[in-house]
Amino acid sequence: KPHPAAPVFATKRIVTRRGPDPKQDRAARTKLLVLAAAAELFARQGFRQTSIQAVADRVRMTKGAVYFHYPTKEALAVAVVEEHYARWPHLLEEVSAEGFGPLDTVVQLLARAACAFRDDSIVQAGARLQIERPQIDAELPTPYVDWTELLTSLLLAAREAGELRQGVVPGAAARSLVAAFFGAQHISDVLHDRTDVVERWAEVSELLFHSIRA
Ligand SMILES: CCC[C@@H]1OCC(CO)=C1C(=O)O
Questions:
Q1: Which range has the worst mean pLDDT, 13-27, 57-71, 140-154, 180-194?
Q2: Is there a contact between 88 and 122 (Cβ–Cβ < 8 Å)?
Q3: Which atom of ligand 1 sits closest to the CA of residue 186?
Q4: Residue 6 confidence (pLDDT)
Q5: How many Å lie between the centroid of ligand 1 and the Cα of residue 143?
Q6: Which one of 25, 44, 84, 162 is separated from 212 by 20 to 30 angstroms, measured CA to CA?
Q7: CA-based angle 48:188:126, to the nearest 5?
Q8: pLDDT, tens digit, for every residue of 58-67?
């Protein structure tokens, strides 16, 4: 049974399951390779400094072949940001399968998200592109709102389960967690290239969950 919060993070996913058509499978795999290469470049040098030629060179393809999958650099940026958000429903499934209560599901989700911000170039690229959204002439997903909605629904369930300190308002707590996580990962990125983001988040997490747990 999908977790009640599962409908959040509604994003298009590139289907890579093996289908009947091997040609289609190859195209889907190529699409993902191009996306990963673009993410590495977007994460390291940003949208403006990244050219389709550089992406093509990185995957040893022609520019034309890349354009076949992504007609513009903006389309590539949208796909990277969508793939960034598509990570979180999988993380929710993984955590939900371990049978934590709602509040500990929030703790685990954010702790593992911090690892993804340290390790996953698609996640890192999505975060950088969201910062650069004023420079990107495309409809990027609205940032922060899906995490806020997911955490609010989990914290409402936590309150129902008696896991929250008296008077803690789930929506306010969710917005505080999102703000704190965003800030912690951003400062870690600027100062230490996110090498210490897991430790920095653990500090904030300790403080915040101590203040909201019953
Ligand atoms: C979980 C905190 C919010 C999260 O942190 C970085 C970032 C990138 O924009 C986020 C988002 O858009 O949801």
A1: 13-27
A2: no
A3: 6
A4: 53
A5: 6
A6: 84
A7: 40
A8: 999 999 999 9
3-state secondary structure of 34: helix
Nearest-atom number in ligand 1 for the CA of 110 is 1
Would you state the pLDDT for residue 2?
46
> Is the ipTM of this structure higher than 0.90?
yes
Q: Whose CA is nearest to atom 13 of ligand 1?
A: 144
48, burial (CB in 10 Å: exposed 0-12, middle 13-18, buried 19+):
exposed
Give CB contacts under 8 A, 24+ apart, made by 60-64.
61/30, 61/34
* DSSP state at residue 164: B
Index of the ligand 1 atom closest to the CA of residue 131: 9
* Residue 171 confidence (pLDDT): 98
Residues whose beta carbon lies within 6 Å of some atom of ligand 1: 127, 130, 143-144, 147, 178, 181-182, 185
Please tell me the distance between residue 17's alpha carbon and the centre of ligand 1 in angstroms: 28
